Each structure stands twice: as C-alpha cells, then as structure tokens.
Amino acid sequence: MTILTDIRTLEDIKLLVDTFYAKVQKDKFIGPIFNEKIGIRWPEHLEKMYRFWQTILLEVHTYSGSPFPPHKQLPVAKEHFDRWMEIFIETTDSLFIGPLAEEAKLRAKNMAEMFNYKIEYFRNAAGNLKS
C-alpha cells in the first residue's frame, strides 16, 4: 500500500499534470477536443501546465500569461468541464493527500467554473451581435 503525501515539489506537480493529461488524452468525451486543439504540441502544453501549477501551488513564479484566451473558442459546454473536473479530482486523490492537494482541486474547480462562464458569455455576446 502506498502512503500518499501532499504536493510539495515540482516533481509532484509534473506527476499530477502528466498523469492527469494522459487520462484526458484517452478520455472518449474530452480527449478528442484536447487532442485536436493541441495536436503535436503536447510537450509544450505540459511544460506550460507545470509552470502554471508551480506558480499557483508552490508560489514559485514561473508562469506568466493569461490562461483563458486559448480556451475561448473551444467547442465545450458545462458537461466537458464537469468531466475535466471528475478526472482532475480522481487523479489528484489517487496521488496526493493534504492541504496543497485540496488547494489544487479548489483552484481547478474555480478555474473550470470561470472558464465555462466566460465561454458562455462570449458565445452569447457573439450570438446577440448576429441577431
């Protein structure tokens, strides 16, 4: 039996990100969306995710940028974000336990809700312009 510990290092973040996105890529529901958008740029995307989570969880400021714009035009709805969260929580809980693991799940939940809200907002605003 493996004893779970909290997220503490960049190596922990890499394990979380790599495990999570390996599951996402194979997921029948959200995998095709990610694989089509990212294509052959998975190593680049994973590096960016390492920096993003390192900045958020370990307060080592290696990420700069705005995470929302690349997601704005994705063909996703609430069900896609729900599935993303399901995989994220399952992955985090299988690898880690502790305050930073809980923080990761909370931050992911907040980000998924905000992205969903903003995508819907932009879609509705664009639809109103066409009417």
From TrEMBL:
<dbReference type="Pfam" id="PF01152">
    <property type="entry name" value="Bac_globin"/>
</dbReference>
<keyword id="KW-0408">Iron</keyword>
<protein>
    <submittedName>
        <fullName>Group III truncated hemoglobin</fullName>
    </submittedName>
</protein>
<keyword id="KW-0349">Heme</keyword>
<dbReference type="InterPro" id="IPR001486">
    <property type="entry name" value="Hemoglobin_trunc"/>
</dbReference>
<keyword id="KW-0479">Metal-binding</keyword>
<dbReference type="InterPro" id="IPR012292">
    <property type="entry name" value="Globin/Proto"/>
</dbReference>
<dbReference type="InterPro" id="IPR009050">
    <property type="entry name" value="Globin-like_sf"/>
</dbReference>
<keyword id="KW-0813">Transport</keyword>
